[in-house]
Amino acid sequence: MSIDPSSPDFDPNLCTIQTCPIAYATVLYDPNLAGNALYLSIFSVLLVAQVYLGIRYRTWGFLAAFIGGLALEIIGYVARVQMHYNPFLANPFLICDIFSLILQAAGGAITDTATSNPSLQKTGINIMIAGLSCQVVSLAIFIALSTDFAWSVYKRRNDRNLMNLSCSKSMFHGFLYALALATLLIFIRSCYRVAELQGGFGSSLANNQVTFMILEGAMVVTASIFLTVAHPGLIFGGSWNLAKARVLATGQRGSEVELGKGHIVAQQERDL
User: Fold this and answer.
1) What is the pLDDT of residues 74-87, one digit of tens each?
2) CA dist., res. 110 & res. 122, Å (int)
């Protein structure tokens, strides 16, 4: 039995592909089952790998961030797989957005519950845009600071303190490259989501499945792979939690900082 969209009691949440036109669906396309299932599988494998590495090397902060991000991605892609069978599900993926700041979550919740109220739905979209915009700005600042750090390391590449890292120079450089590329990919993804939501759910960009799969899914998957292969535990071993420099008062001859076996030890020289 079909549902009459012109009825005052019409509720898109009650629609199925057999009863309502696709124009009333969450997205105006049939989410690709193979592509979304592939991303779901990759995120699930990465989550298991991150949990193992996090516990193995006790990188608790890094682990907590990845569990949060990957869990939300998994929930989101489970929803997209479900949308393949019923595209009228009410915005499940948007509620579980990856990188899900408080503003984004609030905006997603408002948007999800406002399917029959265009004004409220627009408010939810604007809140989500604000959250994503904050993420873009914070990532831009992080990129600037990271670039400054990388340049400082490069200028001091022959410093003997850098020669005594708890990992090889090639592994250290590999970690920096992986972090830089992952950050850039997430930055691209965030910029895309801002542009996507700026035009609303009915815009051509929001309903371009190929663009979404590349600039959303592929960006996050690749960034997650980089930070799993170059996991800080694998690169720095147990020194990740010990790498906290202690600034000591320098004597007449200053202090010498040694990086060895994961410990950053400040030894103040004493006058003889």
Assistant:
1) 988 998 998 888 87
2) 9
* pLDDT attached to residue 230: 94
Nearest to 89 by CA among 181, 15, 187, 19: 15
Mean pLDDT value across residues 114-135: 65
Place of tokens 């012109």: 6
Residue 110 near residue 129 (C-beta atoms within 8 A): no
**Beta strands of 196-268 (E only): which ranges?**
255-260, 263-268
Distance (Å, whole) CA 154 – CA 149: 9
Half-sphere exposure of 57 (CA within 13 A, CB side): 23
Closest CA to 137 of 94, 101, 96: 101
| pLDDT tens profile 32-49 | 999 999 999 999 999 999
Q: Which distant-in-sequence residues (6+ apart) come within 8 Å of 177 by Cβ? A: 230
Q: What is the pLDDT of residue 122?
A: 64
Q: Specify burial of residue 59 (Cβ count, 10 A radius: 0-12, 13-18, 19+).
A: buried
Q: What residues contact 76, with CB distance under 8 A and at least 6 apart? A: 92, 93, 96, 97, 98
Q: How many whole angstroms separate alpha carbon 242 and alpha carbon 58?
A: 11
* Helices 60-85 + 33-57 axis angle, to 10: 160
User: To 10 degrees, what angle do helices 118-155 and 102-112 make?
Assistant: 160
Phi and psi (nearest 5°) for 17? -65, -20
Q: What are phi and psi of 97, to 5 degrees?
A: -60, 135
Q: Which residue has the tokens 């997205």?
A: 27
187, pLDDT greater than 80: yes
User: How far is Cα 162 from Cα 129, in angstroms, rounded to an integer?
Assistant: 42
Closest CA to 217 of 193, 194, 181: 193
